[in-house]
Structure formats: C-alpha cells, structure tokens
Amino acid sequence: MKFSTKAIHAGQEPDPSTGAIMTPIFQTSTYAQTGLGQHKGFEYSRSGNPTRTALEDCIAALENAKYGLAFASGLAAEQGVLSLLKTGDHMVSCDDLYGGTYRIFEKVLGRYQIETSYVAAANVEDYEKAIRPNTKLIWLETPTNPLLRLVDIKAIAEIAHRHNLLLVVDNTFSSPYFQQPLELGADIVLHSTTKYINGHSDVVGGAIALNDEEAYQAIKFYQNAAGGIPGPFDSWLTLRGIKTLAVRMRQHESNAFAVAKFLSEHPRVEKVYYPGLPSHPDHELAKRQMKGFGGMVSFSFKGTQEDINRIVSRLEIITFAESLGGIESLLCHPASMTHGSIPREIREARGLTDTLLRLSVGIEDSEDILLDLQRALD
Known about the structure:
There is one protein chain. This protein has helices at about 5-10, 50-60, 75-80, 100-110, 125-130, 155-160, 175-180, 215-225, 230-240, 245-265, 285-290, 305-315, 345-350, 365-375; strands spanning about 65-70, 90-95, 115-120, 135-140, 165-170, 190, 205-210, 270-275, 295-300, 320, 330, 355-360. It is an alpha/beta fold. The protein folds into 2 domains: about 5-240, 3-Layer(aba) Sandwich (Aspartate Aminotransferase, domain 2); about 245-375, Alpha-Beta Complex (Aspartate Aminotransferase, domain 1), CATH 3.90.1150.10. The strands form 2 sheets. A 7-stranded mixed beta sheet has the order 1-7-6-5-4-2-3, sandwiched between helices. The protein has a 5-stranded mixed beta sheet with strand order 8-9-12-11-10, with helices on one face. Strand 2 (about 90-95), helix 4 (about 100-110) and strand 3 form a beta-alpha-beta unit. Helix 1 packs antiparallel against helix 2 and helix 2 packs parallel to helix 9 (about 230-240). Its cofactor is pyridoxal 5'-phosphate.
C-alpha cells in the first residue's frame, strides 16, 4: 500500500464483531478470561488494548517498521527508548533539540550517572569524535527544534553502526510523510504524536517504531512495567487524525513555503529558518533526505523581547501557544516556552535568542496567515 492508503487502512480492519468501519474505542480496563491463561489476546489494558494495538500497527506501517509502541506522551516515548540505558552509560546528541528532551537528559538521566555529550547538529564528524567507550546510542532531531537544522541520517547511521551503537531519530517535525529515518539507517524512530500525526491539538501522545525484536521486547516490557500508555480514547483520536496526515502535510508545506518567502522579504525580519529555502545551509541535504520540507518556520525579528507582546497582541488568526503540528497556526517564543528549561547561556550559544519565534504553519488559507503576520510585524 502507498502512504495515504496505509494511513487510512493499516492496522484498521473493519471490526470483526460488528463490521464497523472505524476502529472501536475499547473503553475497558480488563478482559474476561475463560480459564488459566485462556483469553483472546488481551488481559489488562495497561498491557494491551485493541484500539491502542491498531494505532501501534498503523504507526509501524507508516514508518515501514516491524514494530510500533504507543505512549501517553512524546516524553513518555522518549523514556521508553532511554530505558535501554543503564547507570554509567553515555550518549551523543545533537545540540539543538526540544527543551523537554534536554531536561530529561540533564535532570533525569543525570541522576543515574548517564551522561550526554552535545555536538553541533549538522557537523557529521563531531558525532564520531564525541563517542566514548561507554557510549550506547546517538540521538538526533532532524529538522531540529527550533532552528530547523538538518542532520545527515545516513552518514550518522554509518558512524553509529561502525561503533555498534543505536541511532535514535526524533521524526516529529517531518512526520513519516516527509521523512522515514529507518530507510536511511536509523534503528529507532520517535514521535510526539501530539503534533502532526494526530494533527488536531486535542490529544497528547507519543510513539516509537523499530525493526529490532530485542529492542522492541525490552521497550515493550518497560511500557507495561512503567505504565505510561495512552488510553483507548486518546488512541482512537490519534488514529482519527492519522487518516488525513498526507493531505494535511501537503497543505502545511505549501503554506510554510509562502510564509518563509514572505518573512524573508520583510524588513522587520532578521533571519528565516526554513529548509525549503535555497538560502538554508542544509537545503541540499533536505532535498536528498526528505520528501518535502515540512510546516515549521522559525525566524528572528529586529527588536527586543519586549516587542513580543506587541506582535502577539495584533494576531487574529495565528494563536500564541506552545505545541505544534495542529491544523491551526501556532506561534511560540522558544526561549520562554518550549526551551525555557535550557539555561540562557546554553540557549544563546546554540543560536536560540530572545528574538527568535517559532511558527507552526497551519492549514488555513495562506493569504489569511500572511495578512495576520503582516499586521503583527508592522
């Protein structure tokens, strides 16, 4: 099946008991058993639920993976992957990454003497230089959050596998529609399904996809043991959103192109970050590695942090809020919102300034989005 067909049908056969086309919401905590060890594949909904299974199978299919696992949030999915580590381990990560991920690495894993080394996202050779004898995995976001740098997945996969390391790629910004890291050599793909996969800003969730059975069984054990699972209604909402993923991503990208072009020509805008622009330093890599450039645009404006309230007060269509990937356009100030957990000196050293704004371009009419930005910036 092609991508759009998978999004609608993978893991979502008509219900055998009723013929219902839509996967039912199996709103139950437990399941009847006829005897010791005799059940219909489900025992307790923390361990497994038919609605969640449909979601996991669909995400695996979209990433061309054998296995999928769904979690209660993107960070819960990250913890599932990080459960593969133990005290004394080390990992290498790109330096431009989501603030919540940085917080887990430094404030949670750090308590267990698991260290992380950060390297400039696009500098391939630096990843290998940062590897130590106790390194266990390499962690990437591409495009990165919020500066939208690209990391060469294939090149980093070669480095990781040469050193017998796992390569984990957070694919949230691209979605599986625009990028499939497993096809480029990654071992584990991660998503905050809150974002593009669900796409309607009405549920929080996370997921991973992978091919290695040993890693799958280990993370699945953690998923059940720790219990950070999505409920059946959240799973159903995410499945509902997935069905339109392909058409939404095409519109997100179309609108983002228009926004990036507009911003690059606006006198109040200092710099635009969008991999679809030929001026982007990773534009050629994006063309090779991705099937499209996505719906995220970041930009820095000429002014001070105090000007943000003036900009926000003029917005009528775009909403000033955290998160991304929904059908509506959302504007975010990373330094005080999504990346506020990163110390200022580290943020600024990485290029994340107080005048940087991140725009998740929605699927509204592009002319309305541009007019709203014009009003706000003027």
